[in-house]
Write a structure and sequence with these properties.
The chain has 303 residues and is mostly helical. The chain has one domain (3-300). 68% of the residues lie in helices and 3% in strands. The chain has 12 helices and 3 strands, in the order αααααβαααααββαα. It has helices spanning 13-30, 32-44, 53-57, 62-87, 104-128, 139-176, 180-192, 198-203, 208-225, 229-245, 269-289, 295-300; strands at 133-135, 246-248, 259-261. It has a 3-stranded mixed beta sheet with strand order 1-3-2. α5 (104-128) packs parallel to α10 and α9 packs antiparallel against α10. The longest helix has 38 residues, at 139-176. The N and C termini lie close together (10 Å). The model has no long low-confidence stretch (mean pLDDT 93).
Length: 303
């Protein structure tokens, strides 16, 4: 079973603390290209040094900013591989799935269904509230965005999934020897990691309900399906399709997307509806397709 694959007598919890610190250091190294770029512009072109996250996001052209931000996740992924293989002496497959190999059909199905939901819901919002959006499409910047996004956003989303639904899920299982604690902790930490996102600053902490709820749904997917494939597909679709379809002045990614939301943001149905309605429907679809059973044991049982 997936979560048990990290349960080894020599896999003490302190190793996960050290591993997490190594992954965090990898992230800092990955941010050096962005920092070097900012320093270069401020020193040689006398530009004002950005003193806030919002200023950093607007310092370069949005495509270049996205590229520099996403590069850091390449280093994070390398850090994950280093920690899993050398500190814990596990294979990457063992923190990915319980199956003999990664099931790309599962990844593709999850990606397809969430992409479809994202596109349909975005178009519904657009046509029902046309004054809240502007058509933002510019062929050349959008083409560059597509290349950057297709190459690097899956790296970003996969690194987050490997950290939360793979590495830390098994790490907390080593500590607690049950399943509900890893599910709860990874969901809370995943949501908490988004606390500095501009959406939270703009709309308030209620937005964390969406992020924690998303983490919980991805954790349920992983435990019930005995692997991360569905979570990998969902997360990639969520960020990739979202980055290509729509942007706003207050979103985490500023992109040359097709649409731009110019409405005054507020935490409404778009925050609550996915957690209380759409996510349960999605889990139901997956449960029927992949014949999930024994929910209580898989989500709350002892190890």
């Amino acid at each position: 079973m997936f979560i048990e694959q990290g349960i080894k007598s020599e896999n003490y919890f302190w190793k996960y603390i050290i591993g997490s610190l190594i992954i965090i250091c990898s992230s800092f190294v990955g941010q050096l290209p962005l920092l070097i770029g900012i320093l270069y512009e401020t020193i040689f072109y006398d530009k004002a040094y950005p003193t806030s996250n919002e200023a950093v996001m607007r310092f370069f052209d949005s495509n270049l900013t996205l590229l520099l931000i996403l590069i850091s996740f390449v280093f994070i992924m390398l850090g994950i591989v280093l920690v899993v293989r050398n500190l814990h002496e596990q294979t990457m497959l063992s923190v990915t799935t319980s199956r003999a190999k990664l099931d790309w059909k599962r990844v593709g199905f999850s990606f397809m269904i969430w992409s479809l939901i994202t596109i349909v819901s975005t178009l519904l919002f657009y046509f029902s509230n046309p004054n809240d959006f502007v058509f933002n499409f510019k062929p050349v910047p959008f083409a560059i965005l597509v290349v950057i996004a297709v190459l690097l956003i899956p790296v970003q989303t996969s690194s987050e999934e490997y950290i939360f639904r793979g590495y830390l899920m098994q790490g907390f299982a080593n500590l607690s020897r049950n399943k509900w604690f890893p599910l709860l902790m990874t969901s809370l930490i995943f949501g908490g990691m988004h606390i500095f996102n501009p959406e939270v600053a703009k709309m308030g902490y209620v937005v964390l309900v969406y992020y924690i709820g998303t983490g919980l749904m991805l954790g349920i997917m992983t435990l019930m399906d005995e692997g991360m494939e569905l979570a990998l597909g969902f997360h990639a679709a969520n960020n990739l399709v979202g980055a290509l379809l729509i942007t706003s002045d207050w979103s985490a990614f500023q992109t040359n997307s097709i649409f731009k939301d110019i409405s005054e943001p507020s935490a409404g149905l778009d925050v609550i509806l996915p957690v209380v309605l759409i996510y349960p429907i999605l889990l139901y679809i997956f449960s029927k397709k992949y014949n999930w059973t024994n929910w209580k044991e898989k989500l709350t049982g002892n190890i």
